[in-house]
Amino acid sequence: TSLCFALEEETTAVFVNCKRLEGSLYDLLNQNYRGSRHLQQNKEAYANVAVGPSVYPCKVNSLFHCVIIVAEKDVKNTPAPFLSRFAKFRFSPADFLEWRLQTLP
């Protein structure tokens, strides 16, 4: 899957409206890697990613990062165990516009 390709890269993946993916990413989000000691030593590590009834072992780059965006209105309906895996930040369109205006020349 394209997600597996992203996991192999030194990149940041941003997920928006990913409610259907929540259950597929638990191994990744729990950092439940096969060979987890190896990830810290820059050796190969793998996380299972479920896509429908299939489970794929995906190689995870030690510099891969994941950002999940959940609309404020959806937070109360998002399972607490899923949310507990992240640092949480509140970010509004006004925050973005303010930041963008500060960065203009």
Question: What can you tell me about this protein's structure?
Answer:
Helices cover 32% and strands 21% of the residues. It starts with a helix and ends with a helix. The model has no long low-confidence stretch (mean pLDDT 81). The chain has 105 residues and is an alpha+beta fold. The chain has a two-stranded parallel sheet. A two-stranded antiparallel ribbon has the order 2-3. The chain has helices spanning 2-7, 26-29, 36-40, 72-75, 80-83, 93-103, and strands at 12-16, 46-51, 54-59, 65-69.
Q: Kindly name the structural category.
A: alpha+beta
Strand content: 15-25%
Question: How much helical structure, as a percent, in the residues?
Answer: 25-40%
Please trace the helix and strand order, writing H or E for each element: HEHHEEEHHH
Strand order of the largest sheet: 1-4
Write down the overall mean pLDDT. Answer: 81
Question: What overall geometry do the principal axes of the alpha carbons give?
Answer: globular
Please give the radius of gyration in angstroms.
16 Å
Number of strands: 4
Uncertain parts:
none
Number of helices: 6
Rounded to the nearest angstrom, the distance between the terminal CA atoms is: 41 Å
Biggest sheet record: 2 strands, parallel
Structure summary:
The protein has 105 residues and is an alpha+beta fold. The chain has helices at residues 2-7, 26-29, 36-40, 72-75, 80-83, 93-103; strands at residues 12-16, 46-51, 54-59, 65-69.
